Amino acid sequence: MALPSGHGHGGVRRDVVWSMTGAPITIKHACMILSGRRGHPSGSWRASGVLAGPAPGPQPARQTAMSAVTKPMPGIAVGFVRMTSSAMSPSRCLTQISPPVAAGPAGAPLQGLGCAVSGAPGPDFAGRRFVRAEGAYYWDGFRVLDESRGSLMHDLADSIESMEQLAVVWRVVVLDRDPDADVRDLPGIAVRWADCRFPFWNCVTLTEDGMDAGLVKQRLDEASEIMRSKKHPGFLWVFEDLLDDEARAALGAAAEQAGLAHAFPGTGMAGDLLPIPEPAHPDLTFVRVAAEEHLRAFADVNSLAYGFPLEDGRDGLAWSTLWKNRVYAYLGVRNGAPVTCAATVEAEGRLFVMLVATDPRWQRRGYGEAVTRKALYEGARATGTTRATLHATAAGAPVYPRIGFEPNSPMRFYALKD
Length: 418
Description:
8 helices, alpha+beta, 8-stranded antiparallel sheet, 418 residues
């Protein structure tokens, strides 16, 4: 099942890899690795520069501010470049960084490395090849990154994207449910709280990256206070890779002290996988949600799958015009009865998947995957988007890589203690 699946900053925020040769390169995902000589001592440093790059198509080149923040590791400095540019494609952009960053710890020169995308070897820069093999990354034969914790390649940029998709989509669906809902962007916290009986529409999430243990404790206390002020229960969503190592280790204890209980884990996923072929399943007929009876059935399948009372799901979706017009929501119908459902909606150049569910009596038949493919197919055909994102529960997580999604952002969900 996909969770009813971020926080916008006025443009597309992507990461890029810079080339020491100055040649334009195509980037899908977000990372920049800067390394000194082999065995160079680790250190923490910042760099800045200007990114000039034409978006695909006839748009002129734009200037975009760029910054890099590193994570120290023994023998290598790892940097993630963050950029904001409305001129860049959400999924691909041609980029050129000039001049290359040339200052590091003790003034040692730093060298740009290529980016391995979906396991493919990166480009060759100045005779140095950056490749991925057997769960690790190598530069010129020198092992520089392990994937034991999801790979530092994904840690920051993908978690930021995942969090921002949540905040953007939830702003729309919560205000659709109640135009007077509590939708606020506070320092470090996004509130998206419809205060209805459907708990997924009652959401708080932490939005800062690089949070240390002290800041996380403060934000958890603030989030708990917000949640306690509401009539109906909901969830705090925590994207683990936005926390530093110390904060991650202390998260459980800090949540306990804030009066929060761990509810369930989740995983953010994304992929440049669209378009996909039109799907079919021999048992199912796909019906788009276009009438109130369809919307009620969509809500009921979700309530059955997640263990909510039927009235709770209906309270979240009933009478919505958004879901019958702007959302690509589909039912999978077997012998006249809706048994599975999924939806997609366009959000900042991506197609976001949400509320994937299957009636427990009909699970493990491929129905959830089939209806998800249908929602992706129709959403991509209507919007032209090529990148898709979602948040998955543990039960649904095995399904989505078969479609082309890559897990990239571990999550934890917290509810108030009883």
